[in-house]
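Forwarding the complex inputs:
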Amino acid sequence: MPRLRVTRRLFWLVPLALLPLPLYLDQYRQYVVNLMLMYVPVGIGFNVVVGNLGLLAFSNVAFFGIGAYTSGVLALKLGVPWWLTILPAGLMGALAGCAAGIPALRGVRLFYLAIMTLAFGELLRWVYIRWVPVTGGSFGMSVPPPSVFGWTLETEGHKFYVFLVLVVLMVVLTDRVLRSRFGRAFMAIKDNELAAAAMGIPTDRYILLAFAWGGFVVGIGGSMYAALVGHVTPIAFDLTELILEFAVIMVGGLGSLLGSVIGAAVITAAPEFFREWLGFQELLFGLLIIAVILFLPRGLASLLARLHPVFVDRYYRD
Amino acid sequence: MHLQTAVRAFAATALLAAAAPAALADNTQGITDKTIKIGNLGPFTGEAAVFNPLNYGPEAYLRYVNDKGGVHGRKFETVFADSACNEAKGIAAAKKLIYEDKVFMIMGNPCSGVAMAIKPMLEKEGIPWMGPAANPKLTRPTVPAMFHATYTGIESGQNMAKFALSNPAIKKFALIAHSNDWAKGYCDPAEAYIKANGGEVILSTAMERGSTDATAQVLQIKQSGAQAVMGCLYQHELIILLRDMQKFGANAVVVGALGADFDQTVQQVGNPAAVRERFFQPYQFKAKIGSKSLQDFHDIFVKYLKKEELPKAGPPTNFYYFGVPVGIVTVEGFRRAGPSPTREKWIAAIESIKDLDTGVLADKVSYSKDNHVGVNRMFAVGVDKDGKQTVYTQWGKPLPE
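Prediction (whole assembly, two chains):
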C-alpha cells in the first residue's frame, strides 16, 4: 500500500478525536463547534460550483435556505422527525441547484451568471416572505427540537454527534465525487471549457451535475441549520449570509475540499474570538480575511499543503 | 495502542458524553454579595446596529442606579453581547451569556428574530428576559420568565386605530401595508380594533417595499372615500404615500406605524401641507423628547454613557428613551425581590408590579401572571395647524406641556 495512502487514513482519526468534545465543552462552546460543522457542507457545496467547476455562481444561499425550509416545513407542518427531513432537504437543494444551473447551460458566464444566480436567491427569499401559510412569512417558523430515531437531541452535545456523522458523510462522498471522472470533468471545464467539450466531455451534463451536487450538500447544511438554530426566517438567507459563505471558501481555499472544512472552522470561530472587542469585531474579522487572501491567495489549505503532501487535494483514485 | 483500541476508547467516551445531561443554570446564577450580572444582548455590528441605542438606554439607567448605591447593596455588572440581529450569532451570544458569563438574566435584545430563536433556551433554563422586541409571540401566550417592558406590534396597531377613532367624524378606514408580517403585526390589530369599535374598513391594499410611486393606491383611497388611512409601511414608502396623497388631493388622515421615524418622515416629505394635521403616529412617551419632563433621562444618558455609546451628533434620540424602561422595570424587579434574589423571586416581583410610572412611557407598567406585556396606552404625535410638532392624548387634544 503506498505510504501516502496509509497517511491519508489518519484523517479518520480527526472525527474520532473530536468525539469526547462534549465532555469538555460548555453549551456555548459546543454550539460554536456545531456551527462550524454546519458550515462545512455549506462551504463544500459552494466550493464544488465556484472552486472546482470554476463558475461564478452565487446561488449557494438559496440552496441553504431551501434545505432549512424543507426541514422546517416537514418537521413543523407535517410532524416528520428531523432526521427524516435531512435527505428531502438535500434533494430539494439539488433540485434548486439544477434550476440555478440552467442559465449556465445557456452559456451565461462570469458576472452575468453571478447576477442571475444572486437574483435566484433573492427570488427564493421573496417566496419565503410571501408564502406565509407554509413558511411563516417574515417572522419565520420555529422548528420543533430535532430528533433521531425518536431520541430528541436536547443538548448541543447530542446534536454534535449527528452533525459529525453528516459532515463526515458529506466530506467522504464529495471526495469520492471529486476523485472520480466527474471531478476531473469539473476540473477540465474549469481550466478550458471549450477544450473539454472538444475532448468529448459533455460539459452541460457535468455543469448541471456540479450544481445539483453542490445544491444537495448545501441543502443538507440547511437542514442542519434548522436543527441547530430552531428558527428559520428569510433574513437568515440574505446577502450578508452569502458573503459569509463566500468568505468560508476564499479563506479556506478555492477548489479545496480541505479548504472548505478549514474555512468553515475559521470563519465561524473568528467572530467568537473577537466577541470581546465590541465594536471592533467587524474590523478585526475584515482584516483577517484580507490578510489571508493577500498572503495566502489559495487559502489556508495551501499552507497545510506546503507542510505535507497528504494535504494536497487529489483528483485521482489511489 | 492499536487503532481499534483507540476507536473503542473514543466511542466509549462519546457514549458517556451523549448520555450526560446538560446542567441547568441555578436560580441565583449571576448574583454575588456585591454584584448582579446582567446580559445585554443586541445588535452592535451589522446593518441593525442602528437599534443599539435600545441597549444603551437601559445600560445608562443601570449605571445611574449603581452610582446611587445599587439595589440592596449590590451593583449591576453588565456583559454586552453582539447578536448582529442574526439568529445563529444571536444564539451563540445568548449561550455565551448564560453558560460562560453566567448572567442572571438577559435584557435589551431588540431583534424579534433573535429573541424568538433564543426563546426555547430561555424557557428551558428559566433565564429571565426583559426586552423591547416587537414580536407579540414572545410573550403571548405568557412564558414564565419573559417580559415586554415596552409595546409590541399589537399595542401599537390598536393605538393607531384608537387615535383615528377618537375623531367622531372618522368611521371609514383604508389599510395600506407591505406584504409582510411586520406590517401585518400592526395592521391586523388595527383592523380588529376598528371593527370592534364601530369603524369600517372599506379598502385594504398593498404597497410593496421599494415602491417609488403610490399613485394607484392613492387613487384607490380617494375613490373609496376613506377618511383615515392606517399606513403599515416603512419610512421610505410612507413618505411616498404622503407626498402622493398631497399631489392628488386625497384628504384622508394618515396614521403611520412605528417603522418610521416621525421627525425624519416629516422632514423628508418636504411639504408642510402634506403633513400638517394630516399625518400622525403612535407615540410611546409621556412627553415630547426634549421637554422638561424627560430632561432627567437626557441627563442620565449624557452623564453615564460613553462617547461612543451616544449619537455621533445631536442629543440622544427616540430609541434611547424607548430602551430605558427595560432598565427601569428590571431594577424594580430586584428592589421588590428583596436582599436575597432568586430567579423565581424576581419573576414574582415583576408580576407584582402594578401601575409603575417609569417617568418615560405614556402608560404605567402593570404585569400579572397572565400578562407579561407591561404597557398598553400610547399617545399620538403629529404636526398641528401652526406647523408645530405636538403630542396628542386623543384627536384634537394636545398633551399639556
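Residues 94 and 213 of chain A are 6 Å apart (CA to CA).
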